[in-house]
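Lab notebook, design round three. We kept the backbone fixed and only want residue identities now. Task for the bench partner: fill in a sequence for the structure below.
Input structure tokens:
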């Protein structure tokens, strides 16, 4: 079994989908718990800590430079995370979660969607980039995905996030891509849009 240091908070509302919270560079398993509760109150929260250290800061996979990923490591780490989620589902008795990933966490969530699409029921990708230069084309069968990009994001080029949205759409996902008047950091608009979106998805799944 692939173990991650993690936090788990059980659901307080049986109708809310479980959330897989994936932090950005330098975050940890506590980072996005508050965000998860704001986006989907009552959901079970599964929040692992990335197992790669960059200058002491946890990440989910190695990078060679800003925006340049070690793609062999991306693939390996995505599969490890997929194993962890499958094990955690059994251990905690939860359904396939909706990922909420920020920055590096959004990139590993995107990699999971491409490499192990059955692991997640959907995803909220906050400031995500295309994680692989030669990505597979999975069958995403209508999986709901919300991609929120920042118009003035100095890290994620607009063309890159647009490519990711197009690839996920071509693979059959139901993608909603919005470009916000924001940089790389999250804004209140991210929280509001994600909360409204998850409410719609949960209603449709019910």
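Proposed sequence:
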């Amino acid at each position: 079994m692939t173990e991650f240091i993690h936090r788990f908070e059980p659901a307080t509302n049986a109708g809310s989908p479980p959330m897989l919270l994936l932090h950005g560079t330098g975050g940890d398993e506590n980072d996005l718990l508050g965000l998860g509760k704001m986006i989907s109150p009552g959901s079970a929260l599964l929040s692992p800590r990335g197992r790669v250290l960059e200058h002491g800061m946890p990440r989910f996979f190695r990078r060679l430079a800003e925006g340049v990923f070690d793609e062999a490591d991306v693939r390996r780490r995505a599969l490890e995370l997929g194993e962890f989620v499958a094990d955690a589902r059994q251990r905690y008795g939860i359904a396939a979660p909706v990922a909420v990933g920020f920055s590096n966490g959004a990139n590993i969530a995107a990699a999971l969607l491409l490499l192990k699409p059955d692991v997640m029921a959907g995803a909220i990708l906050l400031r995500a980039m295309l994680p692989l230069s030669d990505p597979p084309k999975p069958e995403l069968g209508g999986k709901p995905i919300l991609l929120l990009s920042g118009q003035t994001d100095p890290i994620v080029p607009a063309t890159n996030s647009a490519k990711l949205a197009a690839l996920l759409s071509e693979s059959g996902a139901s993608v909603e891509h919005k470009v916000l008047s924001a940089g790389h950091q999250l804004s209140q608009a991210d929280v509001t849009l994600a909360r409204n979106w998850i409410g719609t998805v949960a209603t449709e799944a019910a």
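Keep this in mind before ordering anything: Residues 29 and 49 are 5 Å apart (CA to CA).
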